[in-house]
Amino acid sequence: MTVAHWRKWATEQLREAGVDEPERESTYLAALALGVDRSWILAHPEAPVPMDVARELLVRRCRHEPMAYIKGERDFYGRMFRVGPGALIPRPETEALIERALAVGLPEEAEVLDLGTGSGCIAVTLALERPAWRVTAVDISAKALRWATENVARYAVEVSLQQSDLAQGLVGRLFDLVVSNPPYVALTDPLPTEVRDWEPASALFAGEFGLSLYARMARELALGIKPGGSLLLEHGATQRAAISDLFHAQGWQTRASWVDLAGLPRGLHFSPPVDIPISRANRP
Q1: Would you give the distance in Å from CA 175 to the centre of its chain?
Q2: Mean pLDDT for each 10-residue chunk of the chain (284 residues)?
Q3: H helical segments located in the chain
Q4: Nearest to 243, CA basis, from 257, 225, 264, 229
Q5: I need a surface site. Which of 117, 217, 226, 247 has the fewest CB within 10 A?
Q6: Contact, 199 vs 119, CB < 8 A?
Q7: 160 contacts: CB under 8 Å, gap ≥ 6
């Protein structure tokens, strides 16, 4: 079957399966099957398509498996990162978290922590952009850390990876900057099939209102940030006020906030409490 015939046939299969933008998706699948880019596919409609490979890819996409999982990688901040089942797929809105981190104004050899690293895209990007920073990345999921390990090796950066529930495995460590894109989806929030059925629930959902991880961070993280340090958090578009309340109740101060490319509220920059209550300071 030629590329032209494949695109027409596969487009109909994808449309029947309810996949968005089926014509574009069929082109991407043909490119994957042939190991070329999309522009080559468009320029060579007469080329033969390896049907065994192409059919397998088509079946996966018709099941709504994310294209990033099928391809095995996703672009983030201008670089390609390995990704697959068990790790959240990097998203463009999280690139704003990188921009904010790079603009904080840290010591040359700052200690930086990425909480809930997933694929490792945030930690690896920060290590590449600021090679002198000492970057630590943690995740509760062993599956996610396997993808992070691949990406750390891929870019040959100095990132320390550790399995930990938030910062519980880092007691006694102090950081100049903590960054996190934590789970913040409420259990009842509507999600596309590609997300809800394929990406790891532990990286998506955070209680009834999507706030449970933020509540824990507000209680637990102050002891791990140096005086004058910073916490940068990505959040959902409707959560800014609720998250601010959680942190202010624990003595944190809001330093800044930001919006995503769509103009929606997407992140908060906090300073840790100056005075930590004795009950928390004496916490085991």
Answers
A1: 21
A2: 95 96 96 95 95 96 97 97 96 96 95 98 98 98 97 98 95 96 93 94 93 96 95 96 97 96 94 68 40
A3: 3-16, 22-34, 38-43, 51-62, 67-71, 95-103, 121-129, 142-155, 193-196, 212-220, 240-249, 278-281
A4: 257
A5: 226
A6: no
A7: 134, 135, 136, 137
